[in-house]
Write a structure and sequence with these properties.
Number of strands: 15
Shape: globular
Distance between the termini: 43 Å
Radius of gyration: 20 Å
Order of helices and strands: EEEHHEEHEEEHEEEEHEEHEH
Strand order of the largest sheet: 1-7-8-9-10
CATH architecture of the domain at 183-283: 2-Layer Sandwich
CATH superfamily of the domain at 183-283: ANL, C-terminal domain
Number of helices: 7
Helix content: 10-25%
Length: about 290
């Protein structure tokens, strides 16, 4: 069934809440929760990092709920971009923990969303990945002084192309699985870095990981996992690859594993994957 979610309800809850797609939690020894004056955990909001917030949200539930049961259930997971602000998808209190941890919620009132097949431009099937497009009052008029860039982002039909790869289920819950610009095409197979980054975060020695595609004469692109280990931990590329076997598809196992101590960042703290890709190609002499 083609995916096209539309919510024309009047009203809605939580539109004033901040955009969050990644949560970080820190126990507050003073017992004063940030902004709330209640015993619990401080909650920090950061920009979208697909694949990272679900584990952190689970931490929220395990830490906050015993300490502040009256307010923990009111937490929100939401999705939005600068171009369609403030949020276009959100979870609500009545959603289950699994729905909150595994999705960014359902479409907001007076807003439309559709998942589009990137090859054909047609609506994607349910539970099939494609580019997330948004239409509604929340979409910007355009980029200041850049009409060509605006035309590339917003079609004549007023759909804004987010560049995010998403999946929607039959209940309308949306899951962000990656960025179209970050997608790796290895021998004709589409590989989403966020999926692999999720997997590598289950490794007990891995602190952080970024997956990029590096050029390859035969396959077009190969997978390179740039791993930052936890303090005091040591491992090898061979051990990391062995960890993958039998757990993910063979063609998704990185050909290259590089251990790093930091990543190239923007002034706002976002990881610059295009620079990381360039660094890895230079490092690997590709």
């Amino acid at each position: 069934m083609p995916i096209k979610a539309r919510n024309n309800l009047i009203g809605g809850n939580g539109t004033e809440e901040a955009l969050l797609a990644r949560l970080k939690f820190e126990i507050d020894p003073s017992g004063d929760r940030a902004g709330g004056g209640q015993s619990g955990a401080k909650v920090y909001l950061a920009e979208a990092t697909p694949g990272q917030w679900p584990q952190d949200y689970g931490l929220c539930v395990s830490i906050c709920q015993p300490r502040c049961p009256d307010s923990c259930g009111k937490g929100r997971v939401a999705y939005g971009t600068t171009e369609n602000s403030p949020v276009t998808f959100m979870n609500f209190a009545e959603d289950t923990v699994e729905q909150k941890a595994e999705s960014v919620g359902r479409i907001m009132p007076h807003t439309e969303a559709q998942i589009v097949d990137m090859k054909t431009g047609t609506l994607a099937e349910l539970n099939t990945s494609g580019e997330l497009c948004i239409r509604g009052y929340c979409v910007m008029l355009g980029y200041w002084g850049e009409p060509q860039k605006t035309e590339e982002a917003i079609g004549q039909d007023k759909w804004y192309h987010t560049g995010d790869i998403a999946v929607m289920d039959n209940q309308g819950f949306c899951k962000i699985v990656g960025r179209s610009k970050d997608m790796i095409i290895r021998g004709g197979e589409n590989i989403y870095p966020a999926e692999l980054e999720d997997f590598f975060h289950t490794h007990p020695q891995v602190q952080e990981v970024q997956v990029v595609g590096v050029k390859d004469d035969r396959m077009g692109e190969e997978i390179c996992a740039c791993i930052r280990l936890k303090k005091g931990e040591k491992t090898t590329a061979e051990e990391i690859k062995a960890f993958c076997k039998g757990k993910i598809s063979h063609f998704k196992i990185p050909r290259y594993v590089v251990f790093v101590t930091n990543y190239p960042l923007t002034v706002s703290g976002k990881i610059q994957k295009f620079k990381l890709r360039q660094q890895m190609e230079q490092h690997l002499n590709l």
